[in-house]
Amino acid sequence: MNVPKPYLVRTGLDGILDGLQEGDPFPPERELAARFGVARETVRQALHELLVEGRIERRGRGTVVSRPKLVQPLSLRSYTEGAQRMGRTPGRLLVTWENITVDAEIAAALDVSPSARVMHLERVLLADDVRIGLESTYLPRHRFGDLEQHFDPTTSLYSAIRARGVKFGSATERIETVLPSPREAELLESTTAMPMLLLNRRSVDVDGVPIEVVRALYRGDRVAFEATLDDR
Description:
31% of the residues lie in helices and 34% in strands. The chain is α+β, with helices and mostly antiparallel strands. It has 2 domains: 5-65, Winged helix-like DNA-binding domain superfamily/Winged helix DNA-binding domain (Arc Repressor Mutant, subunit A, Orthogonal Bundle), CATH 1.10.10.10; 70-226, Chorismate lyase, CATH 3.40.1410.
């Protein structure tokens, strides 16, 4: 049976990774091409696949083995809780905090009039100082406007909301794969060719009153999501 060279190269790279630890240098493209007896383009494509999967990463002029992806639960827990559960240090960088009017879809999701001012909070999400996500949160200002005076945007928004006595009831989420815009790629220190996981969420409290609409973009090479399912 004639096994395709790309498959042989990818299998060989997987074997090399099995013998390395996080942070170890990965062999350069030229060395790998000579080892497997293939063109450098074949090796380059296999390395790109590993980059997208988050198993290796560029560091300076070289390539090293990545640390495991941050696994986020699909639940009404905050990003902070998910990061800490994996022993990672969460952080946030404020990009935008403004009061704006939004399109009809977001206004309807928040149950506000199209002319109402909505609080928009945009932050870069960090794990151990590595940029892994870009989160845009829309909150009804008539309900959460006082956060402007009391909330530290580098901390957990969910904790601040819960501290006000608001109890999350449920959320609807949709996840899909997208490519980032040039601005998004720059904020995430990535490229427009790196696939991202786009999460759209609408959360309501225990009385069904809207809390937030969220658009969160996560680096596909840095983050994975998991859910616990049952048949009840």
